[in-house]
């Protein structure tokens, strides 16, 4: 039976490219979903074996919809990570391609993509109104559906090819070295893979019992004295009141019954609630690599 993988679609999103790079095998069927919550729900409900969503971008930071949906709405494991290069392109309908910069009336994209190009848009398309779409390829589809409008989508070169749009400009993000971290989620860990990962990580979600001086310091020291390297810590509101947070903590270590289990047990003794989000292999695609979407 083919394994199914849900991704933030439609075809031609950055997530689509990242999903293909993470699952290049022929016996994997990719299934598009229109939003990040739809991908996570599809995996949680057992409609797909795995799902891929963006979680963090080098310019814009966390994709908070992904983090919050993981915390509050679904019970899935993080089973893998892929860091993928992001080159934002301006895509326009071929009928409109001859316009000058001040004539574009609307820019459409996913909020993360818009945020990665804020300086560029202020300088080069100041007259354009911004509107948001659930994904970059959805924005491309909207531009394609209105040949009479001077609209611009921000997205992948692949979307330009798939939807027959003209690539007006490439690499319009405000900073070079633009990468997004994508996670693969599932109900079960991935079977052993034949590609060696760059490293393994463990993600946990820690909720402090109450706020007292040094509470977070105590949590962090459980990792520090075991020489466990933390590569990310991110707080999100518990939604129960201002000043109350969950902490996402990524540790550069696969799960093990001594060091990792010991650190988690120590944090639990402090009265914290700890949810294990997964231990997983991490991969990276370098800048300039050709997408393998098909
Ligand atoms: O995958 C996409 O195309 C998205 O719309 C989400 C996104 C946006 C910008 C960078 C990475 C992922």
Automatic annotation (TrEMBL):
EC id: 4.2.1.51
One of the Pfam families matching this protein, by short name: PDT
Reaction equations catalysed: prephenate + H(+) = 3-phenylpyruvate + CO2 + H2O
Positions of the Prephenate dehydratase domain: 4-187
Site-annotated residues for Essential for prephenate dehydratase activity: 180
PROSITE patterns: ACT (PS51671), PREPHENATE_DEHYDR_1 (PS00857), PREPHENATE_DEHYDR_3 (PS51171)
GO MF annotation terms: prephenate dehydratase activity
Keywords: Amino-acid biosynthesis, Aromatic amino acid biosynthesis, Lyase, Phenylalanine biosynthesis
Matching InterPro entries: ACT-like_dom_sf, ACT_dom, Chor_mutase/pphenate_deHydtase, Preph_deHydtase, Preph_deHydtase_CS
Associated pathway: Amino-acid biosynthesis; L-phenylalanine biosynthesis; phenylpyruvate from prephenate: step 1/1
Official protein name in the record: Prephenate dehydratase
Organism in which the protein naturally occurs: Planifilum fimeticola
């Amino acid at each position: 039976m083919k394994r199914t993988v849900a991704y933030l679609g439609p075809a031609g999103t950055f997530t689509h490219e990242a999903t293909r790079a993470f699952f290049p095998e022929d016996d994997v069927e990719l299934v598009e979903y229109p939003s990040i919550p739809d991908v996570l729900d599809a995996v949680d409900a057992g409609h797909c074996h795995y799902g891929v969503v963006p979680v963090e971008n080098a310019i814009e930071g966390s994709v908070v919809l992904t983090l919050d949906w993981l915390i509050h709405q679904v019970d899935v494991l993080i089973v893998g990570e892929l860091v993928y290069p992001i080159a934002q392109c301006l895509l326009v309908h071929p009928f409109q391609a001859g316009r000058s910069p001040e004539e574009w009336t609307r820019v459409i994209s996913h909020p993360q993509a818009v945020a990665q190009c804020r300086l560029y848009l202020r300088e080069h398309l100041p007259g354009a109104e911004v509107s948001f779409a659930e994904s970059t390829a959805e924005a491309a589809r909207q531009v394609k559906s209105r040949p009479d409008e001077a609209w611009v989508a921000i997205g992948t070169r692949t979307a330009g090819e798939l939807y027959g749009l003209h690539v007006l400009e490439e690499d319009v993000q405000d900073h070079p070295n633009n990468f997004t971290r994508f996670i693969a989620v599932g109900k079960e860990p991935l079977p052993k893979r034949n590609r060696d990962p760059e490293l393994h990580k463990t993600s946990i979600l820690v909720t402090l019992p109450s706020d007292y001086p040094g509470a977070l310091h105590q949590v962090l020291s459980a990792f520090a004295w075991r020489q466990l390297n933390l590569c990310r810590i991110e707080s999100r509101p518990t939604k129960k009141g201002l000043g109350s947070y969950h902490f996402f903590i990524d540790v550069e270590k696969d799960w093990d019954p001594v060091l990792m289990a010991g650190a988690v047990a120590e944090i639990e003794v402090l009265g914290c609630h700890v949810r294990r989000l997964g231990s997983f292999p991490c991969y990276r695609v370098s800048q300039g690599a050709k997408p393998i979407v098909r």
